[in-house]
Amino acid sequence: MSTIDISRVPKQWPNRQYSQSLLCDGMDWHFQFCKNQDPQAKLLVLIHGTGSSTHSWHEIFPALAKNYSVIAVDLPGHGFTLGAQKSQLDVLHIAKSLKNVFQALKLSAPYAIIGHSAGANCALALNLLTKTPAKIIGLNPSLVPLPNFYNNFLGPLLHPIATSGFMASFLASSISITGVIDTLLDSTNSKLSQEQRKLYRLLFKEQSHVYGSMNFMVSSHISELLSNSSKIKTQHTFLVAAQDPWVPQLTLLPAIQKFFPKAVVKIEDGGHLFHEVNPTRTLEIVYEALQSTQSTTPPSYA
After folding, report:
1. pTM of the model
2. Which regions of the chain does DSSP assign to beta strands (E)?
3. Alpha carbon 274 to chain centroid, angstroms
């Protein structure tokens, strides 16, 4: 059921003119959708990573919308998608919910999914479920466990007690005081502007976003996705940022080579949020992948 209530989305939120809401799977989804005037235009899906939202595609969304129909979603427990239960915050359940959302909106199967970090994991899970899309473009895909330093840093926050609603409420109320969000953003080795940082600070003031982000992080299903990689029949392009401390190329590249040996890999200088800091170069890589003729048009959802 589609609605028009986007009052919860701040008026200055990036690309808010495309914002819509949808009641599906017991959640009130926030998504941004631009249908291209060309009836033959292919559909692209943008899936953000842990702790982010549609704002992650601030410059990328409108650029792609010039030639494609584009939908970006706030994942369950993130941004302005409300009502997710803990059981709905893992990658496999999210893939099922995304399928239901696309069906509810009567969208054709996506030609490509562009996913950042754990968003790429969602794209892989969706492919296992639906055998679409034709192309997956992973930006710093979360295909390896976090390095020990970040496990130690985040471990206390990911403990079952810490991922409770009570603790999420406490953390949300203390974010502006503790400076945790700026510390996390600094740890991505990405030079975000103050305006970009402001958006993340706003998100993490909301209990639902803190709760959703923490629980999503512990449910990425990396091993299960990789063990089923041979069943993922799609063309892969991976952007790997050379200075990404969250998904280090030292461990990521061997994983890609082992599980996705036919993937196109682009190594670029930058950090984990490369696509937010370098949208122009990201778009160049995305367009190159989209225009490749190695894949066929995907079928519709069953």
Report:
1. 0.90
2. 2-3, 19-24, 27-34, 43-47, 69-73, 112-116, 135-139, 235-241, 264-268
3. 13
Residues in a beta bridge with 21: 3, 30
Which residue in this structure is represented by tokens 């589609």?
Answer: 2
- What string of pLDDT tens digits covers the 302 residues of the chain? 556 689 999 999 999 999 999 999 999 999 999 999 999 999 999 999 999 999 999 999 999 999 999 999 999 999 999 999 989 999 999 999 999 999 999 999 999 999 999 999 999 999 999 999 999 999 999 999 877 544 444 444 444 444 444 444 444 444 554 477 888 899 899 999 999 999 999 998 888 888 888 788 877 789 999 999 999 989 999 999 999 999 999 999 999 999 999 999 999 999 999 999 999 999 999 999 999 876 444 433 33
